[in-house]
Amino acid sequence: MKYTSGLLSIALLLGSLVSCTKVIDIDTNASDSQIVVQGSLPSDGDKTFVKLMKSVNFDESNNYPAVRNAVVTIVDDAGNSDILTEVAPGFYEADSIIGISGRTYNLSIQVDSKTITSTSTIPDKVTLDSIIVTEVTEGNIRGGAASGKTYEVLVRYTDPANTNNYYRFIESVNGIETGDIYVFDDRLTNGLAVESPLLKFNRQLKSNDVLTIEMQCIDKNVYNYFKSFGNLSGGPQNSSTPANPYTNLIGTKLGYFSAHTADRKNHVIH
């Protein structure tokens, strides 16, 4: 089967709900601390969690205090609900809520007198067919020159026809996320077999490293969140970044809630 390159957007932070899309101007000087939300609700057996932190000023160290003793609830459109348990400071896990494609999930966070809400829908799952990991040398990597020996990663999947699909790819090495997060849409690849590079110009790997690529099918609002941050580094936890992010949260300026599918492929470096 012939594969066609997809539209790639390297991304790290947030999108917006259609009903509440807005651009937030963040003062990089001293400002009131904001609650930063990282919420993940997968449909493939992984734990649902919500991580809560407080932002810091731009000139302060990246030490983000945990938000303790919040009441975190998720309710789906079938009437199922779950109150998450704080299993570590600022880290809340669900006990019973199940991610199912097609369902919409409503997040509610209560911290003292403050309420934060969000909504996210799990799309139909698209399978990650394979990943191709190739050792390359300087000047041979697609999109530009690499500095010395590095690796190129391609992802292959087949995009469903007649639907709008949005994808997020997360890269890990030996079980640790690298912070390199990529998002795609299917405006140019609807209904096609896709082969797309996860562009990184200094992907240094050693023998016996285990490279893991996770493919998530996400809704448009989550896609817009991550895409809006382009190639900024640091991920959603980098709450001191001076930017004008989108958010799919109501009640705070920083963070996201993503209900999604998840599919993974591993590759051992030889």
Structure description:
By secondary structure, the protein is mainly beta. The chain has two domains: 7-14 and 125-231 and 262-268, Immunoglobulin-like, CATH 2.60.40; 19-121, Immunoglobulin-like (Sandwich), CATH 2.60.40. It is built from one helix and 18 strands. The protein has one helix at residues 220-227; strands spanning 7-10, 35-42, 49-54, 71-76, 81-83, 85-88, 91-93, 104-111, 114-121, 128-136, 150-158, 166-173, 176-185, 193-197, 210-218, 249-250, 254-260, 263-268. It has a five-stranded antiparallel beta sheet. It has a five-stranded mixed beta sheet with strand order 6-7-3-2-17, with no helix packed on it. The chain starts with 6 loop residues before the first strand and ends with a strand. Residues 1-24, 143-148 and 231-242 have low confidence and may be disordered.
Number of domains: 2
Give the averaged pLDDT, no decimals. 83
Level-2 CATH architecture of the largest domain: Sandwich
Q: Could you name the ranges where pLDDT drops below 50 across 5 or more consecutive residues?
A: 1-24, 143-148, 231-242
CATH topology of the largest domain: Immunoglobulin-like
> Order of helices and strands, N to C?
EEEEEEEEEEEEEEEHEEE
Helix content: under 10%
Structural class: mainly beta
Amino-to-carboxy terminus distance: 27 Å
